[in-house]
Predict the 3D structure of the following.
Amino acid sequence: MRYMLLICADESAQVDEVDPIEPWLDKAGARRLDGSQLRPVADATTVRVRGGEVVVSDGPFAETKEQIAGFDLIEAGDLDEALEIAAAHPVAKFGTVEVRPLWED
Amino acid sequence: MVATLIRMTGDWDLAEECAQDAFATALERWPSEGVPRRPGAWLTTTARNRALDRLRRKANEAVKLREVAVVAPGPEEDDPSGVPDDRLRLIFTCCHPALALEAQVALTLRTLVGLTTVEIARAFLVPEATMAQRLVRAKRKIRNAGIPYRVPPAHVLPDRVQGVLATLYLLFNEGYSGQARHELCAEAIRVTRVLAHLMPDEPEVLGLLALLLLHDARRATRTDAAGDLVVLAEQDRTRWDRGEVDEGLALLDAAMRRREPGPYQVQAAIAACHASAVQADDTDWDQIAALYGSLTRFVRSPVVELNRAVAVAMAQGPAAGLELVEALADTGQLTDYHLLPATRADLLRRLDRRAEAATAYREALALATSDAERRFLSRRVEEMG
């Protein structure tokens, strides 16, 4: 199964020390299909179409304390395997990793 | 008859219960329909049908769940006996931490115990449609999120066992506190027994089973005829269920011999101190206070601190207990918890500081959540004059 790991963290929080990502990349290996860190929400733009009108605005889709800071698309046998990979992500130590299965039939 | 059922179903509790059901049905029907020609055979058949019904329901649910879950090879697949235990996999699937606690409990009752949705809904006092939806959602998540159908591998097993035990303990407490619904306690004990049978080397599993049995043994004496709470010191100890007490104590012994203490074993040891005291005055409060001290090492909870304060008060006098309770109150935790002012009130009463006690009882009364507790506290307020 494929799972999207949404790497969420509070951008404004001061985190003393973030573990390097390389050991995690090694651990995930070929199971990590794709992924990247994202630029901060200050660089985000949202688009909505309402009544045929395109509404563009500055900022992320929701004003929450934690924002999506990155994503990783992984392939795992089951949820336990996906959770194990997610738990090893450096951001999991101070932020939150949401594990979402892809809609596949 | 029970023995026949046990041989047939391999399940002691189920057999006993179905036999009881058959007798109840007989009492209902025989007066109007007449006593059948061979009452013994009639009873056995009725009980057997009821047992088969339940087993069939359980099997169906188990099959359905296995169909939706990801079937992953578990460690016991290499078991030379070649009998991977489906029930153990079921427990871990039903109690997967990716499911909400209430969904875990409902799924466990549905698939492991074989209760109907109607029965589960009734036990949790929610509409049937709500419970049905909860179960459907849980099964959907098992399928869509890829929750595996297996016993977790060794490196995550301790964590997962803790999760399963927490679910079972919640299930028991759901039936034990407030409006007592004993069937939930019985089911929690039944499933914990299955788990203990399947994982005999896990001392915490034995510890939980011991804890549940030692609590359940006191059930009949916890409320009086009017439904009012009877405090531990005033319970009629001769009416505690001796069979459950003995079994609980033996299980706790077996668990402690493994020398891997854990929160359930410590709580069972506390319950065992109460169960072993013939009269309330015989209670070894020093030992209980020490056990609460070790419990705080496993469970950081202000409720545990409060219980420790009560035990210290019993062991060393109300003044020593009051000091701990007031220190706890000063931390600002538990401000909504009626047992904090209730405990403080009780200690003040025993120190004969009646005016302060009355004030504290009134505070507790404002926070109490059940009618039985409110009646108890009102009586105390009056006694303080």
